[in-house]
## 1
Amino acid sequence: MMRQLAQQADTKIVLLVLDGLGGLPMVPGGPTELEAAHTPNLDRLATEGTLGQTIPVLPGVTPGSGPAHLAMFGYDPVHYEIGRGVLEAYGVGVHVGEDDVAARGNFCTLDENGDISDRRASRIPNDIALPLVEKLQTIEVPGVSIEVQHVKEYRFVVVMRGDGLVADITDTDPQQTSVPPHPARPRSEEAGHAAGLFNKWIDVARKVLADEHPANMFTLRGFSSDPQLPKYEDVYALQAVCVAVYPMYKGVAKLVGMNVHNFAGDSPSAEIAALSSVWNDHDFFFVHIKPTDSRGEDGDFEGKRQVIESVDTALPELLSLRPDVLVVTSDHSTPARMRSHSWHPVPLLLWAPATHRPDKASRFGERDCATGGLGTFPATDLMPLALAHAGRLRKYGA
Amino acid sequence: MMRQLAQQADTKIVLLVLDGLGGLPMVPGGPTELEAAHTPNLDRLATEGTLGQTIPVLPGVTPGSGPAHLAMFGYDPVHYEIGRGVLEAYGVGVHVGEDDVAARGNFCTLDENGDISDRRASRIPNDIALPLVEKLQTIEVPGVSIEVQHVKEYRFVVVMRGDGLVADITDTDPQQTSVPPHPARPRSEEAGHAAGLFNKWIDVARKVLADEHPANMFTLRGFSSDPQLPKYEDVYALQAVCVAVYPMYKGVAKLVGMNVHNFAGDSPSAEIAALSSVWNDHDFFFVHIKPTDSRGEDGDFEGKRQVIESVDTALPELLSLRPDVLVVTSDHSTPARMRSHSWHPVPLLLWAPATHRPDKASRFGERDCATGGLGTFPATDLMPLALAHAGRLRKYGA
């Protein structure tokens, strides 16, 4: 439908994503993080524009960052999946090309029989894991190139590049102890070549790590390739750019065909300031603010509130660019009270002065969003709404 | 999706169903039955928790009890059907096993030519129908056993048990008068055996009833078997129990794998009191309150209001069990004003003190539910929401 209706227009859309924005009261009847925050600029936009709330994947379903972003970008997150290997690779800035196969690695401990005694190698810290990753980087397998990057503690990512590689391979992690790691097994005939090459690499790695302790081996999970997502330009006729600090979000943005703009600084105001230098070359701007989610995961209600306020403070600079459509929302909720992602609906503010229809709301907060004029709807419907308000969707039918 | 994400947790969910709860004002601008009721306990839960409304099947579609309960239990009522024969059998407490075929019977009147002159046999009362059912119970067909039970007035149910029975059989009710009843016709080759046996039984029955008046024959409708619904334990990883007074609701609960708890008494307070004896052995509790629907069908606004108040009065005993998630809702609306089931959205109250997100509502009523924080959504999404609030759904994707 979008491919059929999308049209060019001289308008600009900003999708300002405060990761994990949705929250919960810490005490019964109290405010959420967003409701507690002093946000005069957002409240003005809420008064002028329209509020609503989105369901990231399905009611009750708590999404990981991959599916949540895909949905917000308009892709059905149940149909389109980004494999764990690819997502982890993007998380540390490692590119996964169309013919590459990525996997997530976990260092583990094998006992004298070769059985796993600790699936996370005592959660070794970075300074012990890094030299091990460097050892793995020295291993060569003829016919392919292999990139290994440390992620955090016992986690790393490996990407294999070469001809005829297919990622349809089962995890080597048996998900239990007292058994040896599985070999990499192809799930289809085409994947046999790649599985064989990974097993060769694993065999050498086993010898290389044999004398280490506690991390004398690893398991691999989430073998995956570029999911070949439709691109923003093709689906929405948009020239899109991503302004984000964390590599993973830049990676997901690349997968849907956005350009990635690198800039100095990492604060919300630095991100918003960075918009001006790409303003003229693009018509869609994905701005990703991470620390709302991080403070939520920390259980830090006050910290999350402050991040929200810092975004509000930077908002006038964004508005001075005169976007035609500004969407302020999130990929999912991360209530400080729960210290984790959650399934709760996501607050949404749509501001498009030429066409927005005001509702009764006068503040940007969960309670107001619940009764907002846009109602409660699947996150995948957000992009068509933004395009419409930007005059970028043709009429359907006569 | 639920099979993939459901996980065990040490939490308990209560689904308190006031059948036909949704209502309408009797006078323009007046309160609905629920709004007119004095419900201090429900109002407190509404203030603390989150309201919303569900669509039972599709907007504008008035559901029967079967589809409405299936939807509320999380099964697409368009995909999964409980045949009328099976539903009627469960309504009078007759079990329909996996290999049985049930049909609903209507006594009718045949004229001297064998054509139907009255499709409901002058709606004969129970005391005339019962001896006829007893006559039918004496008929034997070699190779199968047959159970016949009276339902009400001119209605009865027949269940055939034996080997190789398939229910894919057309109604014998021609849905018009001045024609004879159809024979039972198989719609598929496999159903030929069962259709033949039903026709044998019908032929004997015709002779047995020949001298009766006005009910000298019957028609059969809704040949059906156990619909083989996925079970709560397999789909949701829940040990579920049903607390209900009416056989039909116990039957539907059995079809989705719930245990059925029998207890003394039939008032809402007796049902809630009965919960305590099964509390420790289960983690999902379906409590079905029938008289809200009955009073609605009677057009008895005041009576329906009083039933709602009696549930409210019994609520503290339920809360003393400390459920983690309490859902108060209905299968469909039965406005006293309409004296029938209706398509209107169904009021919903979700109370889960650890994770509910409060909205602006302070009363449990249709007007507050319409602007509640959960929005308006299909009834089939209710179970995932309840599971999420009980910590029983894993995160989706990385």
Note: The mean pLDDT of chain A is 96.
## 2
Amino acid sequence: MATLSLDEARDLASKALEAQGFSNEQAQAIARTIAKAERDGCESHGLFRVPFYVKALAHPQTNAKARPVLSELSSSIVRVDGARGFCPLALETGLPALEEKAKANGIAALVINNSYNIAALWPEVEELAVRGLVAMAFTCANAYVAPAGGTKPLYGTNPMAFAWPRRGKPPLVFDQASSSSARGEIQLHARDGKPIPEGWAIDAEGNPTTDPEAALLGAQLTFGGYKGAAIALMVELLAGALIGDLFSYQSTERDKFGSGAPFGGEFIIAINPATTASAGSCEDIVATDSNTHAEQLFERLLSQEGTRLPGSRRVAVREQTAANGTTIPDSLYETITGYLQG
Amino acid sequence: MATLSLDEARDLASKALEAQGFSNEQAQAIARTIAKAERDGCESHGLFRVPFYVKALAHPQTNAKARPVLSELSSSIVRVDGARGFCPLALETGLPALEEKAKANGIAALVINNSYNIAALWPEVEELAVRGLVAMAFTCANAYVAPAGGTKPLYGTNPMAFAWPRRGKPPLVFDQASSSSARGEIQLHARDGKPIPEGWAIDAEGNPTTDPEAALLGAQLTFGGYKGAAIALMVELLAGALIGDLFSYQSTERDKFGSGAPFGGEFIIAINPATTASAGSCEDIVATDSNTHAEQLFERLLSQEGTRLPGSRRVAVREQTAANGTTIPDSLYETITGYLQG
């Protein structure tokens, strides 16, 4: 295992991507996102992802030097054209404008188009919540997941992320796929020759399977049956048709070059609780500000044994990685340092 | 069984409520909502609910003659103070203003405070989608549902509803509890003396149960385990702290008079796809308008045998009830006609 400080992890990712053809701006934005994942112990979105970004260049239309373009679609909607580059720089371009509009108008949205989204969604909703906003984010992916009642892949793993600001503490954040499991977990089971749990997937004939290889050739299933499938469909619509961008199946069909990277849009809503909670209930049992009020709920929740707040595991890991850095397999370290040769 | 036309069902509900002390305005708005549920075969939100509305008057602060007050919290946020009345009239007061703001600004939200919400959420999101908007709605309820890892009620059944407009067709709509089942479903099982499926609830000691009476005394479970619980928590925050209104457990604590009715807020987001999709992807595989684009996804979905669109059952029932009316148990019919005596 190789041990790196978080700064070293970020710089390694950035230099490797730049050596492979990414512009300095694109590489640095991606590397900052990767370093956040390493910081939070979110291995599958950390340095592990560097080869995925490099592989995305396989599509001839991918623009590793893309300069995202910010525009305004209305008084409460900002848009970033990712210009066929990658989502981290598009987000850095759009989030300050989204924050400004949400604070001015009470609610606003950010539309990101034409972008490869290989990262998680929690960094952007957390960023908005650090700035005092409530945030939700949605994106499609490639088609891996069967609809309710169906047997063939149609939806992506279609995450929905949510963040709530907390005074003096990291925001409460969740970021969850509409599928029962991440695709990477099935791949890990396949690598290790272990069966997957029931309910994760069906084989190519539509039969339930615990064989990870059969699952990868078949379709993943949504969490919670038809209710998770309704959420998967909602995410397709919000991150696809609502913003004029690709559905998961269209991202898959576009990827004739085996880049493996989901291409399309992301939709983010930001709400200012200082506006929405300003009138409030006439009941005197409601706290005077949204922050204090929410903490009362969290206290109630945590008073039940066996519970925890979503995202608390990531926050706990932060203290460790800040002190001790992060470790990655030697093979991954060698792959990434190999990229430095260009 | 008693058979009524939809107009008769609406008028019966309205007259019964007015005889019990509701203002004509409140009674008619509630009755319109009840008639929509009967129209769509949504029994648990139809005439079945009339006694719930009457029982809500048990709380001395309930205002059966409330006049909701519309105001503006910011350029994109409208608010309706339900004045301790019931949600249907608050919604009728706020939805036109929400529509106007969403169409002007691209995205807008409606905050409803101080209101009893005994109805489903699909009527309001469907109403917005009929007007061309994409809509999401959230509300808390009383504390009936255990958090992930816990055994005691904390969350409400906390529905999230979503609607997508379709040209020349009823909107695609879903409205799903974050609990495994609606509480009304358990109540119907209890009424009919039928066991509930496993996974719906735990008893007061925290043990899994299929006894609907034990379930009503214990706690319901979220759908899809911790992922459904994250959604339940999000709904508490959006319909509670974000809008300065009661959490589910606060609604329960407030209800010292056994009214049984959830009291608090509702949060609705409306988005104008004509704005958000106006720039769109540079890829020529994306249809030029969001409506056409979405229909491509629905076609793909329905091309898989065994699938259906969310809400399609309700839409199918409409044609039958329009022709044949709706039937309710004699006992319910007698209860409601009994209310007419005042």
Note: DSSP finds 13 helices and eleven strands in chain A.
